[in-house]
Amino acid sequence: MTYQGLIHTYGHLLDLPLHTRTVSLLEGRTPLIKADNLARHLGGGFELFIKYEGLNPTGSFKDRGMTAAVSEALGRGATTVICASTGNTAASAAAYAARAGMKSIVLIPQGKVAAGKLAGAIAYGAQVIQIDGSFDDALTMVVEITNKHPICLVNSINPYRIEGQKTAAFEICDELGSAPDWLCLPVGNAGNITAYWAGFKQYSGLQSGLKSAFLPRLLGVQAAGAAPLVVGHAVENPETVATAIRIGKPARGEQALQAAEESKGRIIAVSDEKILDMQKLLAKLEGIWVEPASATGLAGLAEEVAGNRLKVEGLRVVAVCTGHGLKDAEIITREMRKPLVVPPRLEALEEAVLGN
After folding, report:
1. Domain containing residue 274
2. How many domains is the chain built from?
3. Which residues make beta-bridge pairs with 60?
């Protein structure tokens, strides 16, 4: 049967209004990749899978929530959507609005968005406005304007975003036959960890007598320079190379903390150095290139395992990688060495390759 997107596949499990008119780019159904090489590097003795959300249509997990949010908005007659974004939400909102024939407006913090993400929003036809402030300032502004004017807010505080995003948990359970023992993922505005926990809880409720098999423990990971849920208060000027999670006041912070507690998991922070090291390691060992923020969950897993704070032997672990490496290619290209230049002769190539 031809795949028709998340709402068609899981709509019966989503709390969407009857007026919803499906807007889809065939999002979802992203691969769950077994990462044996990386598991061995981390000490072995456990199964590790990568839920590679960077293979959604606009290159990030945001498409899951956006198909639901834009479908609901279109169904009730909205003509314009708006969001604050560090980049991925902007591209996703713009793409789904374009698909629906709607106008999209995105507010981004000035100088704080990777070029690949900004290019996407522009390519999809969004009106892009930079503000002289943080993501949190931008979110405050879009909330205020949607309270005053008939414009649909599609940030993760929109409940239909969570409905769409929880389908990733459904897919993991469907593929593995149960939830993993641990789920590791980045935490920025905290909508994704909230959605995953909602999805796992919902699936557990559908499996009579198997509830424990569908409830993983959650390891949420923030960047050390933007870790309000770890330090216990808002961070006024968050700073991290992981631009997708450079957020100091998570909109769903309380729900994220609740999800971690209910799952008997935790939320931790890792340094930018650890994040970038993991980004390179994942690409080198598994051939999976993700943007820096997407490597944060794995960086946290590695740090917890190395410090003997997380025992994974004999367990099954899934790490969510939220966005493709092309979303922030500059982080790699600005540090790379210039390619070796050789004359167009076989001997020169042999010398370069074989060291003759």
Report:
1. 6-59+161-333
2. 2
3. 323
> Is position 356 within any domain?
no
- Same domain as 86, residue 139: yes
Distance CA 174, CA 280 (A): 30
Domain termination residue (choose one: 157, 172, 207): 157
Q: Which residues are 130's β-sheet partners?
A: 108
Task: Using DSSP, state whether 225 is helix, strand or coil.
Answer: helix
> 291 near 258, Cβ under 8 Å?
no
Amino acid at 208: S
Task: Indicate if the pLDDT at residue 211 is higher than 70.
Answer: no
How many other CB atoms are found less than 10 A from the CB of residue 271? 15
Contact (Cβ atoms closer than 8 angstroms) between residue 124 and residue 95: yes
Structure tokens that stand for 203 in this block: 């699936």
Report the distance separating Cα 281 and Cα 287, nearest Å: 9
Is the per-residue pLDDT at 356 higher than 60? no
Residue with tokens 């969950």: 297
| 16 and 77 housed in the same domain | no
- Cβ 193 vs Cβ 182: under 8 Å: no
Percent over 70 (pLDDT), the chain: 97
Which pLDDT belongs to residue 91? 94
Q: How far does Cα 94 stand from its chain's mean position?
A: 17
**DSSP sequence for 41-62:** HTTSSSEEEEEEGGGSTTSBTH
Q: Angle at CA 336, nearest 5°, toward 330 and 338?
A: 120
Contact 47, 317 (CB under 8 A): yes
Q: What is the pLDDT of residue 304?
A: 98
3-state secondary structure of 134: coil
In a domain, 89, yes or no: yes
Confidence band for 214, pLDDT divided at 50, 70 and 90 = confident
Q: Quick check: is 341 in a domain? A: no
**Per-residue pLDDT at 264:** 96
CATH of residue 95: 3.40.50.1100
For position 277, what pLDDT does the model report? 97
Provide the pLDDT confidence category of residue 184 given band limits of 50, 70 and 90. very high
